[in-house]
Amino acid sequence: MVTAPTTVTITGAGGQIGYALLFRIAAGDMLGPDRPVRLRLLEIPQGMRAAEGAALELQDCAFPLLDAVELSDDPRVAFDGCNIALLVGARPRGPGMERADLLAANAGIFGPQGAAIGASAAVDVRVVVVGNPANTNALIAAASAAPDVPADRFSALTRLDHNRAVGQLAEALAVGPGAITDVTIWGNHSATQFPDVTHATLTRPDAPGERTPLLAALALRLGGHEQAIAWLDDVFIPRVAQRGAEIIQVRGSSSVASAANAAIEHVRDEHHGTPNGWTSAAVVSRGEYGVPEGLVCSFPVTSDGTGYRVVEGLELDDRGHRRLDASVAELIAERDAVRELGVVR
Ligand code: NAD
Ligand code: LMR
User: Residue 110, Cα to own-chain centre: how many angstroms?
Assistant: First the structure.
């Protein structure tokens, strides 16, 4: 049976993450080896030559799944009939730019893009925002697409933070990353996020069917429960929360391949399901865990292939609640700043 191509729109396609995304999507890494894709590359005029260059290279790969590559600098054209949108292009913070200026500049990008998605995307469209500040950009895009596209079709990327957390834990426990499940990133994709291992588990290679609480395994390795908690507070949480800044310091620019990989895994799991426990994604809150309705907040999520749902009913201790509350306070401040601009209600 021939499957109709899925239209995937990538904004900022001429940038670094765009370049790391396009070839993997065309190769089938995101939607699987039996789903043809039509790529739509949205850029601003200054980025168009880079996107054109990427399109030439895509042609030179002769990917069997790649049905077409179309370029535009007009959101209404780029989102027309699109099934999946990855909103990557964003305005970076410039010298002397305050947070409010940054939010205003990005409202000028994500507002019109959300409106174009509302006006012309396919009825099944799903959107993930990568461009920073990702959570609030997603809030703006979702508000601008309403009421034509339900808010639960919008999410923001915290899978990179999730993967970073798993990577740090795997190193500390001297196990492969695949042995670790049910880590959670709560809150904002920023330094206030809360990487949480309260419910995480470890599968030992010698007992593949058994899951050990990760905290107990850490305590065993680090010499006791108190040592494990101290490592989590002093090393793990700050390392994961500030990993983006560390990458910028070491590389000289922000993460690219790991960000593209995380975006691909986010969309893949949303569309194909999460068979091995939960993952993390920032989705529109319906009031879960006391997070105000409408904020785009990172939660533990699962998908059965029809979209991410928040895993409910997990217990957090007082310290966990305080960390989540601090990140939510930052999200509220960002929402209030864009409310003042009249972009969201
Ligand atoms: P980049 O500067 O290399 O590329 C951005 C591209 O977006 C540029 O080509 C630019 O021309 C384009 N662009 C700007 N405004 C646009 C608009 N209105 N419409 C379409 N295209 C537009 O940056 P990058 O390294 O690719 O990073 C992109 C974004 O992703 C940044 O905001 C970065 O902070 C963010 N990021 C997020 C995560 C995450 O985990 N959420 C991780 C890494 C980077
Ligand atoms: C990251 O987490 O790597 C990025 O969001 C950092 C950044 O500011 O681009």
Answer: 16
pTM for the model:
0.97
Question: What is the spatial distance between Cα 221 and Cα 203, in angstroms, rounded to a whole number?
Answer: 15
Q: Is 254 in the pocket of ligand 2 (CB under 6 A)?
A: yes
How far, in Å, CA of 54 to CA of 38, rounded?
A: 14
Amino acid identity for residue 104 in this structure: A
Q: Does residue 343 form part of some domain? A: no
Pair 147, 250 in one domain? no
User: Which atom of ligand 2 is nearest the CA belonging to 245?
Assistant: 6
Please give the tally of structural domains in the chain.
2
Told to judge if 199 belongs to the known catalytic residues of this protein, a careful annotator would answer: no
Domain that residue 112 falls in = 6-156
Q: Number of C-alpha atoms within 13 angstroms, CB side, residue 307?
A: 15
Inter-CA distances, 323 with 141, 245, 319, Å = 27, 20, 6
**With contact defined as beta carbons under 8 Å apart, do 195 and 240 qualify?**
yes
Q: Whose alpha carbon is nearest atom 39 of ligand 1?
A: 130
The CB of 249 under 6 Å from ligand 1? The reply is no
Tell me phi and psi for residue 41, to 5 degrees: -110, 115
The per-residue pLDDT for range 81-109, each reduced to its tens digit, is 999 999 999 988 777 778 788 899 999 99
Ligand 2: residue of 97, 255, 256 to mutate (most ligand atoms within 8 A of CB) is 255
For residues 2 and 41, the model is more confident at 41
User: How many angstroms separate the most distant Cα atoms in the chain?
Assistant: 59
State the DSSP H helix or E strand holding residue 340, giving kind and residue range, or none if neither: helix 318-340
185 and 145 in one domain?
no
Quote the distance between the C-alpha of residue 81 and its chain's center: 22
Residue type, 173: L
Q: What is the pLDDT of residue 1?
A: 61
